[in-house]
# Entry
Amino acid sequence: MIFENKDQLKEKCAPIIKLDGRDVQILDEAKLKKELIDDLIYTEVFSPDKATQEAACWIIRRAANALGIVSASIQSLYEAMGRSEVKGFTVPAINIRALTYDVAQAVFRAAIKAKAGPVIFEIARSEIDYTLQKPMEYACAIKAAAIKTGYRGLIFLQGDHFQINAKKFAADAAKETQTVKNLIWEAIDAGFYNIDIDTSTLVDLTKATIKEQQKTNYVLAAELTTMIRDLEPEGITISVGGEIGEVGGKNSTVEELQAFMEGYLEELKKDGASLTGISKISVQTGTTHGGIPLTDGSVAKVKIDFDVLGKLSQLARSQYGLAGAVQHGASTLPDEAFDKFPAVGTAEIHLATGFQNMIYDSKSFPGDLREKIYKYIKTNLKDEWKEKDTEEQFIYKTRKKACGPFKLELWHLPEKTREKLCAELEKQFSFLFEKLKVTGKQSIVKKYIKPVDVHLEMPAAFKS
# Structure
C-alpha cells in the first residue's frame, strides 16, 4: 500500500518504529521486515505527496542505521589494496535498472549465503535519467532491501559514470560541468560515498602528445575531486574513481595512465593543497556497454585484453597506490571470463546490462508485458532506430529506456513472477561472487572499514 499522507504514515509506523528525538527506535523488527518496509519503500518511490515521500525515505534510512545497515566509502579498503595488503579478489559493482527493490534483495540473499563482501550498488548518470531513479530513491530501495532480507553491515552506494557529455560540454562547458557537480552533490546527500568521475569523454586523440590528449580529462577530474572533498561528511573520505579511456573506444595504454595520473596529481597540488586523489582508474580493454548485439538480437562474444588489464592494474598500484584498474561493460561476457579478473589484479568490475537481459528474456517474464514494452519502444524511440539495425538489434539497444516508463507495471508484477525472476538473478549473483572471489570476504571489510553515522535532518513532516 501507499501512505496517502504523513498522518497515515505516522499511524502505521507507531507500533513498529518509535521516533526518538532526531532518530528512531525499532520496536518490532519482525513486523518492519514483513510488511511495513514494503509500504515505506513503495511510498518513497510512488507517493505524489513530497512531504510523505520524504518522511518515508527518512524512516527507511534511519531504521536501516538502527539495524547496523550503514552507507560507507570503500576508500580505506582500496588503499589497503594499493599497498598490496589485500588482494586476490575483484569487487563487483552492480547496476540495477528495473525491479530495484526486488533485485537488491536477491543480491543481499546471495551475499548473506556466501558471506560475501564487498559488493557495490551503483547507478550511472544516464541510468538515473532513463530508469527514473534519483539517487535518493535508489539508496532507499537498496537499504529497504537490506532491511527486508535481514542483511547487516556496510552498504556501498556508488555514482557510476558521472559523465561529462562531450557535445554539451563543447556547447557550454560551464553549464555541463555544473550539471555534473549538482548530481554529485545530490548523490552525496543520498549516502553515495563512492563516486566515479568520467571525464574521459573529453580526451582528444588529435593532440600531438598523450598528456595533451588527456589534459582536459585530468584537469576537470581534479576539479570535481576537489569539490567532492569539500562536500564529504565528517569522518568519511569518499572513494573517487577516474577514467582514462571511454568504454567502447580504443584500448588504454600504460602511457595514457601515466600521463593522466601525472597531470591529475599536479592539478591536485595547485594552490598548496594536499588532497586525497582517486582510489582506482577505469580503463578500456575491449568491451562496450551492453555488449554488441548481432542481427538476431544475441550478443557478440568480446575478447578482453587481460594482459593490458593486468599491466594497468599493476602500474596503478605500484606507482600510484591505487587499488588497480576497473573493468566496465562486463556483464554480458561469457561465464568463463569472470575468474580471470581476480587473476590479473582487477580492482573492480561493473555489471549492468546482463541482469536487465535476464529479466526481459526470462521465461517467467510475462509475454504480454514484454510485447507492450516493445511496442512502446518502436513507437516512442523510433528516431533511435538506425538504418543498418535489424528490429532485434534496435530493441536490444533501446529496451533499457523502458525501465522508467514501465516502473510501476514492473513493480506490480505478480509476487510469484517477481520471485521466479529474482531466483534466477540470485543464482547469477552467487556465481559471480564465487568467480570474483569475494565469497567469505566480510571479515576483510570489517577490518578495514568502520561505519560512520552521518546525521540526517528530520523531515518537516515529523517536526510538526
Remarks:
- The two ends are 24 Å apart (CA to CA).
- The chain has a mean pLDDT of 93.
- The longest helix spans residues 210-231.
- The longest strand covers residues 153-163.
